[in-house]
Design a protein that fits this description.
By secondary structure, the protein is mainly α. 73% of the residues lie in helices and 2% in strands. The chain has 17 helices and two strands. It has helices at 2-5, 32-62, 68-105, 109-136, 138-143, 154-183, 187-209, 215-238, 255-292, 303-328, 331-339, 343-370, 372-377, 392-410, 414-429, 433-456, 465-492; strands at 498-501, 507-510. Strands 1-2 form a two-stranded antiparallel sheet. Helix 4 (109-136) packs parallel to helix 9, helix 6 packs parallel to helix 8 and helix 7 packs antiparallel against helix 8 (215-238). The radius of gyration is 23 Å and the shape is globular.
């Protein structure tokens, strides 16, 4: 078994010329385990840091007595809007990363530098448009996620969204350029850009929220200052790239090239945007069913379900960041080897990735099942300044009860969620974007959004639907993912020449059976 996992320098595939001095050629010869560690760990850290911007805000907010549960709810209501920006940024960035990796493996450096430059232009334009949208219609956007204008949290959500919107272009630029930097063979620098911004955010969160008592405005300002710092570091790298060099001509519009890149990034978009649709459905269920609930429909208690769901979704975002980081870190490796005709290495990496995802998912599952109350306490004990609440002890007991049940049920099949996400991103790395898109839609829209609405209303489970829909969705999706893995394994194991996609949308014949 050990001999099987060892990689030796392969003979050049017939018909696959290598560009002299190709900076990324090591991806076709280095040991897969070593490559996976080199690329996946910085990617995981980068994605975790990206998720932590909002999560850290909520931790500081939830532990501030003058904000409490209302502040947590406000943060939860704005969180999906930041994920919309992240989804678009990752679609552009991961699509570009995949396209560039395959281009370099196929010896097409011109396609690579044009795609990067056009991706830069696109993410800046969309970032400005999204900022304007958030500033112009904040009330309409918050209402989509179940914001209650009469709740204590509503003005806090408006305040937080105003400042977060201003930082959206910087946030999107930094997130989109991160996978591009990885595709250039610099995963460590990609990690450093986001970590630097996150450290700034944490320090300023403490200063602005506690000593300066700036509340939601302080939390948002800390976030956008960190995002600006990360964006500046990413911009600096674009002028120092190793495998790809940008020229003035790179920035000429290339709609065909960027179109193929965006198609490759659709699965990443769906992975992130699914959080938005799930939160939209879940927060609406919390709002509608919560008001009809005997306990959480009481005056002053209505913020509890939305605050708790926001916290649990933050933990889920951490899990997904690790799961996607493992598989997204493999995108440059898989893409390069597919472009170079090394499907044997791509198949080995698939199984290494699935095993890693399963182990990580199992660890997270144990954590959520064994320590739900401790995890809930990280975001505060559940305090309120609402004068309608006359028994604070009862309020906190109900907060704890709902939170513990939500964490334990919502996260019950975390191991399957990790494997599912890994398969979706791996399909993207292979260039099979539409297959990846179909699996994403089945999981996130059919089983995810449809599941919680079906359980809450036709099946009359009410707030309990929030607990059960996620494990059901992950279990059903795992069946679909298993079938896809069997199919992909057979494709990668074919002994004869196969038709292989290349970045310009055409196909060519390549030998696929190589000695490892």
């Amino acid at each position: 078994m050990e001999d099987e996992m060892k990689e030796t320098a392969p003979a050049e595939p017939e018909g696959t010329a290598q560009v002299p001095g190709n900076a990324n050629g090591f991806m076709a010869t280095e040991k897969l385990g070593k490559l996976m560690v080199k690329f996946a760990i910085p990617c995981i850290i980068s994605l975790l840091v990206g998720a932590l911007y909002n999560i850290v805000d909520q931790i500081f907010i939830g532990n501030a007595d003058y904000l409490g549960t209302a502040g947590n709810t406000a943060n939860s209501l704005v969180f999906p809007l930041t994920v919309v920006a992240l989804a678009i940024a990752t679609m552009i960035g991961d699509g570009c990363c995949t396209f560039v990796s395959i281009s370099l493996g196929s010896n097409k450096p011109d396609d690579a530098h044009r795609n990067i430059a056009n991706s830069v232009i696109l993410v800046v334009i969309i970032g400005v448009i999204l900022m304007a949208l958030y500033l112009l219609i904040p009330k309409a956007l918050l209402s989509l996620f179940g914001a209650n204008p009469d709740a204590e949290s509503y003005p806090l959500a408006q305040e937080y969204l105003f400042w977060i919107a201003i930082g959206i272009p910087f946030y999107m630029f930094g997130q989109a350029m991160n996978p591009v930097i990885r595709s250039d063979g610099s995963p460590t620098y990609a990690m450093v850009t986001l970590v630097s911004g996150a450290v700034i955010n944490i320090v300023l969160d403490y200063v602005f929220i506690y000593p300066l008592q700036m509340g939601m405005t302080g939390a948002a300002l800390a976030t956008i200052i960190g995002q600006i710092a990360a964006a500046i570091l990413a911009l600096v790298y674009l002028f120092r790239m190793k495998a790809v060099k940008l020229h003035k001509s790179s920035f000429r519009p290339a709609p065909k090239t960027i179109g193929h890149s965006l198609v490759m990034g659709i699965p990443s978009f769906l992975v992130q945007i699914s959080v938005v649709f799930s939160m939209m459905a879940v927060l609406q269920v919390c709002n509608i069913c919560g008001q009809a609930d005997e306990v959480y429909g009481q005056a002053g208690y209505t913020d509890i379900p939305q605050a708790v769901v926001g916290i649990v979704m933050k933990y889920f975002q951490i899990v997904i960041s690790v799961a996607v980081g493992i598989s997204a870190g493999c995108i440059p490796i898989v893409g390069y080897n597919i472009g170079a005709g090394r499907k044997d290495r791509a198949k080995k990496l698939l199984f290494m990735m699935i095993i890693t995802e399963a182990v990580v998912g199992a660890v997270f599952t144990l954590l959520f099942e064994l320590l739900p109350s401790q995890l809930l306490a990280v975001f505060g004990a559940g305090t309120t300044l609402d004068p309608a609440v006359t028994d604070l002890a009862d309020y906190q007991a109900q907060y704890q009860s709902f939170g513990i049940n939500c964490i334990k049920w919502f996260m019950a099949f975390t191991v399957l969620a990790c494997v599912n996400k890994g398969v979706i991103i791996y399909l993207q790395a292979l260039g099979r974007s539409w297959l990846s898109t179909i699996v994403s839609l089945v999981r996130e829209i059919l089983f995810g959004v449809g599941g919680v609405l079906l359980l809450a209303f036709p099946m009359n489970l009410g707030l309990a639907a929030v607990f059960y829909f996620m494990p059901i969705a992950d279990g059903l999706t795992f069946i679909v993912a298993a079938v896809i893995v069997v199919y992909i394994t057979r494709v990668l194991s074919r002994k004869h020449t196969d038709r292989m996609p290349i970045p310009d949308g055409t196909e060519r014949k390549e030998p696929v059976e190589q000695q490892s």
